[in-house]
Amino acid sequence: MKIEELFPEINEIEDSELREKVKAVWEYAIKKGGWENFDLRKIPFTLLIETKRDLITHTRTVTRMAMAVARERGDVRMDYIIAGGLLHDVAKLLEFELKDGKVVKSEYGKRIRHPVGGAMLAEKFELPYEIAHIIAAHSKEGEFVTRIPEAVIIHHCDFIDFHIEKGRL
Ligand SMILES: [Fe+2]
């Protein structure tokens, strides 16, 4: 499946170079994680809780919620919001692996959490450092730095989606 079909929001990134790089990161992570023949919509977005929510739905929801917040604020860079939203969890494709038909934590994932792995991917494809920062700082790693406004938005939208799922009975 094409990245644009998985994530239609990617077409709303105005900067074509940034758009292509976001796509390239996803394509690379799919290959590196060995997910080419697996429906990505069957990967849970987290292994921390029992959930039916998949990584693609979560990623799109976080991105779209963040875009809505950004529109209301009117003073943040929309391209960074979309790119950061779409990439914040891309390294879960490396943090997780398929074992006996089940999605489990990989050896890589036991050593390198997805905010770090994702920031490394952003660097590898020469995305602006702000995107690496949004990815690196979207979870608890971000408590050790000062988040840029776009990173504050992605962080909170990510946790809205996570906490709603976590609170389900
Ligand atoms: Fe997330």
Write the SSE topology:
Blueprint: H1 3-6, H2 16-32, H3 55-73, H4 78-87, H5 92-95, E1 96-99, E2 102-105, H6 107-111, H7 114-124, H8 129-136, H9 149-166
Antiparallel strand pairs: 1-2
Helix pairs in contact: 2-4, 3-4, 3-9, 4-8, 4-9, 7-8
Fe (ii) ion binds next to helix 3.
Q: Tell me the name of the CATH class.
A: Mainly Alpha
The proportion of residues forming helix, as a percent range, comes to: 55-70%
- List the bound ligands: fe (ii) ion
Helix-strand sequence: HHHHHEEHHHH
How far apart lie the N and C ends? 33 Å
* Mean pLDDT rating: 97
The global form is globular
Q: Count of helical segments?
A: 9
Q: Would you report the number of β strands?
A: 2
Query: β content, as a range?
Result: under 5%
- Based on secondary structure, the structural category is mainly alpha
How would you characterize the largest beta sheet?
A: 2 strands, antiparallel
Our Rg estimate from Cα atoms comes to 15 Å
List low-pLDDT spans: none
Q: In CATH terms, what is the architecture?
A: Orthogonal Bundle
Please state how the strands of the largest beta sheet are arranged side by side. Answer: 1-2
Number of domains: 1
CATH topology (level 3) name: Hypothetical protein af1432
Task: Write a brief structural summary.
This protein has 169 residues and is mainly alpha-helical.
Textual characterization of the structure:
The protein is built from 9 helices and 2 strands, in the order αααααββαααα. It has 169 residues and is mainly alpha-helical. A two-stranded antiparallel sheet has the order 1-2. Fe (ii) ion binds at residues 58, 62, 88-89, 158. The site of fe (ii) ion has 5 residues, from helix 3.
